[in-house]
Write a structure and sequence with these properties.
The complex is a heterodimer. By secondary structure, chain A is an all-beta fold. Chain A has no helices and eleven strands. Chain B is globular. In chain B, the strands form two sheets. In chain B, strands 2, 4, 5, 6, 9, 10 and 11 form a seven-stranded mixed sheet that branches. Chain B contains no helices and eleven strands. Helix content of chain B is about 0%, strand content about 55%. Chain B has strands at about 5, 10-15, 20-25, 30-40, 40-50, 55, 65-70, 75-80, 90-95, 100-105, 105-110. Classes of the chains: A mainly beta, B mainly beta. The interface of A and B includes residues 97 and 106 of A.
Chain lengths: ~110, ~110
């Protein structure tokens, strides 16, 4: 089992709709959770981070965390063609390597006009 | 803030040659990470440092790979000898405490 799992996609969503991206993780002690966006040929850039159970909203983006189910999601409202990219879920693990940050393989999102 | 700076941006080398990748983290950041990204394996953590000290190098593929951080503003990742399967994009990232990672632009390595 991978430490951080994501559906590789591609996920195709019509412009203006809600895109829902999901991520599960295996380490129950994980503390911090991040969503990064990566355009082709570019480096990952941070979209959102979440530490507590529940929802966190920032503009068109909402991150959702459920530690009991070991599940993190990212919702993108009013999807735009510029949202087409690969979305990476990242998890910070606790323990002796407290700052070890592990990434999922990413979900490719395509917004069709 | 200049961000994380990596060099070179592209590196093409022949199998068996030594390759050195360089990284300058954001000033004040005390964590530095080296990742490798390929289509097949995604973004893999190779090694990370805290206050210039290597904390976890369990992701380093084999003895051909080594990383150093001689001071707070500079780190290197060395591959010797290089092999075609080392071809990938290598990212350096830095952070401070609980802050998220900030990535450099990456080095695209091609080993022929």
């Amino acid at each position: 089992q991978k430490e951080v799992e994501q559906n590789s996609g591609p996920l195709s969503v019509p412009e203006g709709a809600i895109a829902s991206l999901n991520c599960t993780y295996s380490d129950r002690g994980s503390q911090s959770f991040f969503w990064y966006r990566q355009y082709s040929g570019k480096s990952p850039e941070l979209i959102m981070f979440i530490y507590s159970n529940g929802d966190k909203e920032d503009g068109r983006f909402t991150a959702q965390l459920n530690k009991a189910s070991q599940y993190v999601s990212l919702l993108i409202r009013d999807s735009q063609p510029s949202d087409s990219a690969t979305y990476l879920c990242a998890v910070k693990r606790v323990g002796s390597s407290a700052s070890k940050i592990i990434f999922g393989s990413g979900t490719r999102l395509s917004i069709r006009p | 803030d200049a961000g994380v700076i990596q060099s070179p941006r592209h590196e093409v080398t022949e199998m068996g040659q030594e390759v050195t990748l360089r990284c300058k983290p954001i000033s004040g950041h005390d964590y530095l990470f080296w990742y490798r990204q390929t289509m097949m394996r995604g973004l893999e953590l190779l090694i990370y440092f805290n206050n210039n000290v290597p904390i976890d190098d369990s992701g380093m593929p084999e003895d051909r790979f080594s990383a150093k951080m001689p001071n707070a503003s500079f780190s290197t990742l060395k591959i010797q000898p290089s092999e075609p399967r080392d071809s990938a994009v290598y990212f350096c990232a830095s952070s401070s405490g609980d802050s998220p990672l900030h990535f450099g632009n990456g080095t695209r390595l091609t080993v022929t």
